[in-house]
Amino acid sequence: MIERPRRLRSTAAVRRLVRETHLAPSQLVLPMFVAEGISEPRPITSMPGVVQHSREHARRAYAEAVELGLGGVMLFGVPEHKDAVGSGALDPEGILNLAIADARAEVGDDLLVMSDLCLDEFTDHGHCGVLDAQGRVDNDATVEIYGRMGVAQAQAGAHVVGPSGMMDGQVEVIRRELDAVGHQDVVILAYAAKYASAFYGPFREAVDSSLQGDRRTYQQDPGNRRESLRETLLDLEQGADIVMVKPAMSYLDIVADVRLAVDVPVAAYQVSGEYAMIEAAAANGWIDRDRAIDESLLSIRRAGADIVLTYWAAEVARRLTR
Ligand code: PBG
């Protein structure tokens, strides 16, 4: 026998030598929820181990993220009061903008402070934009608000803004508005290929959202593959610096397609439902939790993601640096 592939699997040392894909803390980004009006962290039932942070409690997590060498934190705000137009998103005293400022004060330039740029955490109807007279999400009116939201986040200190609303033309308007006020260096991490997914379920609890209806008129249909290239190329034409695929595990074909199609960094978001599935199976003793987590992250990297957003970022980084 000439070919014996098992030869390169025979010891841990040789497996380590020939491993093609690696995880490093610098590639991991930790999504965090910062809630207004709480003083103690509040557990999120459907995401065991993840909490809504108070501003003060979050500061410790930012410092820890620096110590662990994470790539960044992606901040989500949970406001106490929501309204039809998501006013809290533009208010410099709004919870997300305050959290961004806290994070910058804590970490300076040692960690990338990223912020979700979308209205759904701030609207009482839970949609990612404002509604027109017929109750439909008004693309162009929403995009104008996103432009102002991007400026508010940059002024609060965000290094990276992450438009996640899937409105047409959003990247172009945000880039224009940022540049107009001198924020040429703020990076746009575009949620370029984002699907209307059931795997965002636990996120609704995480941001206290009671979505009326669904997001199928703006997020992509799970049956579509080519459409992701169209969305990604449009975002690049409009000035996206990094493109993201979301969710991750059920969309590894999309991650691989996008990786081949572009020469900018590619990110993938391992979303709340992906987290919850593994935690739930592990809690039942049905799978080996740590191995399943590492394997899931490795698969996302192997498919082509340079950067992974994951709720396990700190835990995995701790394990990697041990
Ligand atoms: C939109 C946004 C969502 C998530 C991240 N950004 C919700 C949605 O699009 O419905 C979901 C993340 C997750 O499920 O972990 N602001």
Automatic annotation (TrEMBL):
PROSITE patterns: D_ALA_DEHYDRATASE. 5-aminolevulinate 2 binds at residues 272, 311. Gene3D superfamilies: Aldolase class I. GO terms for cellular component: cytosol. One of its GO terms (molecular function) is zinc ion binding. InterPro entries: ALAD, ALAD_AS, Aldolase_TIM. Mg(2+) binds at residue 231. It comes from the Bacteria. Its EC number is 4.2.1.24. Keywords: Heme biosynthesis, Lyase, Magnesium, Metal-binding, Porphyrin biosynthesis. GO terms for biological process: protoporphyrinogen IX biosynthetic process. NCBIfam families: PRK09283.1. Belongs to the ALAD family. Homooctamer. This is Delta-aminolevulinic acid dehydratase. It comes from Aeromicrobium tamlense. The lineage of its organism: Bacteria, Bacillati, Actinomycetota, Actinomycetes, Propionibacteriales.
